[in-house]
């Protein structure tokens, strides 16, 4: 469900009382000409949950990432719509694609076996270089995006680089902190369909981090210990 704000209501194509199957074809040229983007995007299954539970749409508690932490939403999610297989099987009237936001880069992945393979290669590369010290964005974000333009959707194929503007047409479904901690490394690995075995260097780093608090980063592993003096109440850091 998209919310669009028009300065002039006369620009909005009329909704007919009969067949509106071609409505997007009438609406999209107006949106493009007037440079109007969605001011809010909500999944219909999420909107049904909001309505039932009295949650205000577009509020912080209505964000999809917040709903995925809601036990009732997880338990009752099947009541509010069909599962993702309808998109993969070509049965969805309005299919979505996966968008991955990594710094200034946005990649669109089609919901197909080849699209899955390209996404897997991307995640494998991120995981393989997670601890190598190269500068990386603070966060990796996953979005479900529904481009309105049918021609644009056809051009996505298995993978396509896109403008960040495309994120206005979707919702954020997952956020991954990219700080070099063991917890973040494991969360990133959990996104992989097929986990690659750890390299010897990764095994060494994991063995260093596993005994440390979750928020300790590599390579700034805190190696200090407290060694007491014989004299009561005194100690030093080494």
| Main pleated-sheet profile | 5 strands, antiparallel
Note the gap between the termini. Answer: 59 Å
Judging from the principal axes of the Cα atoms, what is the shape?
Answer: elongated
Approximate strand percentage: 15-25%
pLDDT < 50 runs, ≥5 residues: 223-230
Kindly provide the radius of gyration, computed on alpha-carbon positions and rounded to a whole number of angstroms: 23 Å
Q: What is the topology, as strand order, of the major beta sheet?
A: 6-4-3-5-7
Helix content: 25-40%
Question: Helices and strands: which structural class?
Answer: alpha+beta
Summarize the structure.
By secondary structure, the protein is of the alpha+beta class.
Overview of the structural elements:
- The chain has 238 residues and is of the alpha+beta class.
- Among the domains are: 1-36, no CATH class; 94-212, no CATH class.
- Helices cover 33% and strands 17% of the residues.
- It is built from nine helices and nine strands.
- It has helices at 23-34, 44-53, 64-67, 71-76, 85-88, 113-128, 150-156, 182-190, 200-209, and strands at 2-3, 40-41, 97-102, 105-109, 139-145, 159-162, 170-177, 226-228, 235-237.
- The strands form three sheets. The chain has a five-stranded antiparallel β-sheet with strand order 6-4-3-5-7. A two-stranded antiparallel sheet has the order 1-2.
- The radius of gyration is 23 Å and the shape is elongated.
- Mean pLDDT is 83; it is low at 223-230.
């Amino acid at each position: 469900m998209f919310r669009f704000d028009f300065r002039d209501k006369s620009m909005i194509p009329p909704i007919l009382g009969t067949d509106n199957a071609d409505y997007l074809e009438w609406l999209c040229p107006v949106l493009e000409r007037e440079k109007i983007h969605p001011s809010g995007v909500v999944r219909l299954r999420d909107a049904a949950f909001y309505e039932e539970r009295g949650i205000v749409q577009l509020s912080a508690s209505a964000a999809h990432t917040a709903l995925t932490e809601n036990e009732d939403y997880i338990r009752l999610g099947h009541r509010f719509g069909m599962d993702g297989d309808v998109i993969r099987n070509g049965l969805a009237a309005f299919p979505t694609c996966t968008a991955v936001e990594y710094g200034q880069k946005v990649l669109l992945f089609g919901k197909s076996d080849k699209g899955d393979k390209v996404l897997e290669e991307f995640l494998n590369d991120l995981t393989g270089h997670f601890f190598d010290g190269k500068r990386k964005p603070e966060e990796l974000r996953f979005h479900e995006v529904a481009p309105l333009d049918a021609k644009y959707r056809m051009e996505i194929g298995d993978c396509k680089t896109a403008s960040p503007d495309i994120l206005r047409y979707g919702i954020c479904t997952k956020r991954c902190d990219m700080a070099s901690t063991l917890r973040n490394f494991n969360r990133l690995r959990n996104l992989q369909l097929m986990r690659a075995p750890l390299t010897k260097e990764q095994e060494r780093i994991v063995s260093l981090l596993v005994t440390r608090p979750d928020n300790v980063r590599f390579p700034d592993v805190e190696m200090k210990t407290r060694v007491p003096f014989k004299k009561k109440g005194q100690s030093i850091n080494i």
